[in-house]
Amino acid sequence: MRLAVALIPAVFLAACDIGTEERNEVASTRTVQRPHVPVPPGAIARGTAAREAALAPPGPEVTRELLARGEERFRAFCAPCHGASGRGDGTIVSRGFPAPPSYHEERLRSLAPEQIVQVITHGKGRMFPYADRILPEERWAIAHYVKDLQARGTGSPFDQEAARP
Ligand code: HEC
């Protein structure tokens, strides 16, 4: 019995030794250094840097197609609160959600497209962020559509009157 007890540490240590030797032969995942592989030309960047680049101004060129896409996305994601004409009177608001300010207020009229992209990305006050639901390019499309809405006025008869000389 005593012999068996005395043997255990010896066997154990021997096993450890073997392990150490084997580990020296097999490359440890902790110490492997991968060689630097340069980014091949034409590769499309992914991840955080690419996302930030996609959100940096000036964004995509403003075309008819971009505005049409913006309108479609705006109606799906923003109009429920901001209203189709941006007056802050969407259906969700009529059911009790706090009303957003009208896009036709002076302060919001002075927002640059990139600031609207920021609001869509990060949210603002009571408005949730939409970064996980709206792609960067679509955020630009929406932002330019909002600027377009603002340039056209609220579309109310009152505005047309105000615009008359
Ligand atoms: C669920 C309702 C809701 C939806 C949907 C919504 N918003 Fe808003 N939004 C708000 C509210 C409320 C505010 C006012 C936030 C505050 O100041 O607390 C606001 C504010 C804003 C502002 C003004 C920010 C400022 O500087 O004061 C912009 C621009 C805006 N929203 C754009 C958008 C766009 C673009 C979309 C669609 C992608 C959108 N919102 C979707 C509720 C909403």
Name the assembly state. single chain
Structural class: mainly alpha
The CATH topology of the domain at 55-154 is given as: Cytochrome Bc1 Complex, Chain D, domain 2
Compute the number of strand runs.
0
Mean pLDDT: 82
Profile the largest sheet.
none
CATH class of the domain at 55-154: Mainly Alpha
3D shape? elongated
Cα-atom Rg, whole angstroms?
30 Å
Number of helices: 9
Terminal CA distance reads 111 Å
Q: Using the 3D structure, state the CATH architecture of the domain at 55-154.
A: Orthogonal Bundle
Amount of beta strand:
under 5%
Query: Roughly how much helix do the residues carry, as a percent range?
Result: 55-70%
Q: Can you characterise this structure?
A:
With 165 residues, the protein is mostly helical. The protein has a domain at 55-154: Cytochrome Bc1 Complex, Chain D, domain 2. Helices cover 56% and strands 0% of the residues. It has helices at residues 2-25, 48-55, 64-77, 79-82, 91-94, 106-109, 113-122, 136-152, 157-163. Helix 3 crosses helix 8 and helix 7 (113-122) packs across helix 8 (136-152). Heme C is lined by residues 77-78, 80-82, 92, 97-98, 100, 108, 111, 116, 119-120, 124-127, 130, 134, 142, 146.
